[in-house]
Specification:
- This protein is α/β, with parallel strands linked by helices and 354 residues long.
- 37% of the residues lie in helices and 24% in strands.
- The protein has 2 domains: 146 residues, DHBP synthase; 153 residues, GTP cyclohydrolase II (Rossmann fold), CATH 3.40.50.
- The chain binds guanosine-5'-triphosphate (GTP) and zinc ion.
- Guanosine-5'-triphosphate (GTP) binds next to strand 11, helix 8, helix 9 and helix 10.
Length: 354
């Protein structure tokens, strides 16, 4: 048996193994999570077709197949369903967050998930897939293996350093004197961008905005949220003030990824609010880390800021990372006929200061 014994849970080699596992999951292949109780074979049901499921069964051998979902939790941990006889379409239907919870609860077929199911579910989150995993215990060889320690250490390792890659002048309609500096995460993932208006490094306390990517709001002008207005409003305020830094973080959907955000939207269309929708999918309300934002400010030599935000988490995260927030500058815009309840939920359930 190819028993993988990690020396360090974090570092380039461990990160490489995690990344290979993420890519494998996304194309429907099975990966092995080396856990305390032995190897656990895992695949993402949303990426499995019938052929993939057959291959999974062959790798799993004679043991049973379990389906775990981060949303199916009891106070004792994740729960799972015995799914040995089911087809790929049936598995997918079971993890459909819009219908499964209720049905499963009624049938009361949920049992305690195999040990270390959480690590497999975390791997799905890192792959920006739905946190649901088909699981089996396996003794067979598999080219993609990661340990639970490597999975746990991965996000922190990625966030702990950024590489400053390039700087270019990019005149913007709202701020002609603008530059973009790109910062690449340590795992070679998508770059975070700092948009510098004027010369913020020359100001004692420049305006700063931490903005998480929102494809729908920023680019398409979606009216479901306030992101587009916040983005453009921040650039205009910085232009007006003569300088500022807008950190554009590659953290779509508060860190759950665009596809999962669209899943959350579809749950919101059935009555959930933005927090409940995240939770029904098995995510926390907010899955972001502001470590990259603090690291970018430090790299840019900006240690004291006036932060454009309504989000208390951003204030706390910057302070904890050693960036002094001398002032919170409120950053709200009128509602538009589609985002009233989104804005109300931010105030009522996320503690946003309006
Ligand atoms: N999961 C999820 N993400 C959403 C939803 N609506 C918007 N987002 C994402 O939320 C993020 C926007 O967050 P920010 O602009 O940083 O706003 P904020 O956390 O409200 O904080 P401030 O605007 O600074 O007060 C973007 O990544 C959006 O894609 C939603 O309904 N569900
Ligand atoms: Zn948005």
């Amino acid at each position: 048996m190819d028993q993988h014994i990690p020396t360090q849970p974090s570092g380039p080699e461990a990160a490489h193994r995690v990344q290979q596992a993420l890519a494998a999951l996304r194309r429907g292949a099975a990966v092995v999570v080396d856990a305390a109780d032995g190897p656990l074979l895992a695949a993402a049901p949303e990426c499995l077709d019938e052929a993939g499921l057959r291959a999974f069964r062959a790798q799993a051998g004679r043991g049973g197949l379990w389906l775990a979902c981060a949303a199916w939790r009891s106070p004792d941990g994740p729960r799972a369903l015995e799914v040995s006889g089911l087809g790929a379409g049936e598995l997918l239907a079971l993890v459909d967050p819009a219908r499964s919870l209720e049905e499963l609860a009624r049938a009361q077929r949920l049992a305690a998930a195999p040990t270390d199911a959480d690590a497999a579910l975390e791997l799905c989150k890192l792959a920006h897939l739905m946190p649901a995993a088909l699981l089996a215990s396996s003794q067979l060889d598999c080219p993609w293996r990661v340990s639970t320690g490597e999975i746990a250490a991965y996000a922190g390792w990625v966030d702990s350093a950024l590489i400053r890659v390039v700087e270019a002048r990019v005149p913007l309609a709202l701020a002609e004197d603008a530059r973009i500096v790109a910062f690449r995460p340590r795992d070679g993932g998508r770059e975070h961008l700092a948009i510098l208006v004027g010369r913020p490094e020359d100001q004692a306390e420049p305006l700063v905005r931490i903005h998480s990517e929102c494809f729908t709001g920023d680019l398409l002008g979606s009216l479901r949220c306030d992101c587009g207005e916040q983005l453009r409003g921040a650039l205009a305020a910085m232009n007006e003030a003569g300088a500022g830094v807008l950190l554009y973080l590659a953290q779509e959907g508060r860190g759950i990824g665009l596809v999962n955000k669209l899943r959350a939207y579809s749950l919101q269309d059935r009555g959930a609010d933005t927090l409940e929708a995240n939770e029904a999918l098995g995510f926390a309300g907010d899955e972001r880390s502001y470590q990259p934002a603090a690291a970018m400010l430090q790299a840019l030599g900006v240690g004291r800021v006036r932060l454009l935000t309504n989000n208390p988490d951003k204030l706390a995260a910057l302070a904890a990372a050693g960036v002094e927030v001398v002032e919170r500058v409120p950053h709200s815009f009128p509602s538009n006929g589609h985002n009233e309840s989104y804005l109300a939920t931010k105030a009522e359930r996320f503690g946003h200061l309006f």
